[in-house]
Each structure stands twice: as C-alpha cells, then as structure tokens.
C-alpha cells in the first residue's frame, strides 16, 4: 500500500467515525437512546462497519457526547479572563466563561452526566477546570501557602462545572443571568480575602 493510499484510508476512517458520532448526537438530541444500527442507518454507513468502530450503544453514546464536549472546550476562549493581574477578577471571569459555555450547551452536558454518573461512582472528570483556575490564580501563587492556594482552587472548582448549573437552575430556580451573577459573587468571595 502506498503512502497516499494509507493516508486516504486513515482519512476515510476519520470521516466514518465522525459521521457515526454526528448521527448519534442527532439521535440523542431527539431524545432517543440510539443503538449502533440506528446510528449507522442515520449516518448512511453499513451496520457491520459501525460495529467495527463501536461495539455497544453505551460506548457509542459516550464517545459522541465526549467528542462534542471536547469541541466546545477547544472553542472556549479564556484570554479575556487572564488580561489582568488581579486574581479575583481572573477567577471570576474564568468561572463565568466556563459556566457560560456550559449553559449554552446545557442539553449536551446533561446528557453526558446521565450517561456517566452512576451510584457506584465513575471516572474522574473535570480536570480542565483545575488547569484553567490554576492559571487564573497565578498572581496569588507566590503569596499563599500551598495548602491555602489549594483550598481556594478547590473551592472555585466547585463553581466551574455542570454541577453548579444543575444546583442553581434545578434546585434554586435561577435563570442564566442569575446563575452567572451568583457564581461570580461566590468566586469573588472565595478569592477575595487572599487577594
């Protein structure tokens, strides 16, 4: 097989996988729990081929959601949050930007939570938020004891995820603006005394 043929084969595999994931997200968006054959039919791909990529509906659905979430995280722009050296402002803007992205894609994140949250627990999720918030808190890193820095970081991590949206919307009855306002207020209170 020539290098050109090899390249074309890899490109075709990517297109096939992508088509299956898009079809699965469409079906999930319609409120369905798609099977591998249903996703294959929607994507116009043979069922046998689809099973070579995804052996079970659960794996297919989780991969489709993770693929979409990864794309949203890639588009998240935190440059504005990091423009200032004020740690409180950086933390507040980071939390607000992350929650804004989550609220714009809330059905996607709720579907993912439904797929992965189980009574037995699951894999560690949300590690990106720790990275983003650590960067937001860089101005404080040299002035705080490591344990205090970690407490602030962990407190902010509670605010920068789908869990916050679920509690503030479902339990407290807030709309998007109320969620953002409350999360900003909490973030400022967590960082404020240390800044």
Q: Report the average pLDDT across residues.
A: 87
Question: Rg from C-alpha positions?
Answer: 20 Å
Element string (H = helix, E = strand): HHHHHHHHHHH
Distance between the termini: 61 Å
**What overall form do the CA principal axes indicate?**
elongated
Number of strands: 0
| Percent of residues in β-strands | under 5%
Largest sheet: none
Uncertain stretches of 5 or more adjacent residues:
none
- Count of domains: 2
User: What structural class should be given to the helix and strand makeup?
Assistant: mainly alpha
The residue fraction in helices comes out at over 70%
Helix count from the secondary structure assignment: 11
Describe the SSE topology.
Blueprint: H1 3-29, H2 36-43, H3 47-53, H4 57-75, H5 87-104, H6 106-116, H7 127-136, H8 138-141, H9 146-157, H10 162-171, H11 176-191
What does this structure look like?
This protein is mostly helical. The chain folds into two domains: 3-69, Orthogonal Bundle (Arc Repressor Mutant, subunit A), CATH 1.10.10; 77-194, no CATH class. It contains eleven helices and no strands. Helix 1 (3-29) crosses helix 2 (36-43), helix 2 (36-43) packs across helix 3 and helix 7 (127-136) packs across helix 9. 28% of the residues are buried.
């Amino acid at each position: 097989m020539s290098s050109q043929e090899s390249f074309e084969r890899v490109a075709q595999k990517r297109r096939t996988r992508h088509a299956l994931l898009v079809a699965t997200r469409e079906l999930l968006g319609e409120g369905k729990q798609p099977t591998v054959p249903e996703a294959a039919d929607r994507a116009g791909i043979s069922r046998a081929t689809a099973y070579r990529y995804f052996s079970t509906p659960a794996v297919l659905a989780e991969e489709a959601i993770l693929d979409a979430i990864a794309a949203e995280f890639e588009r998240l722009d935190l440059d504005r949050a990091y423009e200032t050296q004020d740690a409180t402002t950086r933390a507040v803007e980071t939390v607000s930007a992350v929650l804004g992205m989550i609220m714009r894609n809330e059905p996607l994140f709720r579907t993912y939570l439904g797929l992965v949250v189980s009574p037995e627990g699951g894999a560690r999720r949300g590690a990106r938020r720790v990275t983003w918030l650590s960067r937001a808190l860089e101005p404080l890193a040299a002035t705080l004891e490591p344990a205090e820095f970690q407490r602030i970081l962990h407190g902010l991590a509670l605010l920068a995820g789908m869990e916050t949206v679920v509690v503030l919307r479902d339990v407290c009855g807030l709309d998007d603006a109320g969620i953002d306002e409350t999360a900003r207020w909490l973030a400022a209170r967590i960082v404020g005394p240390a800044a």
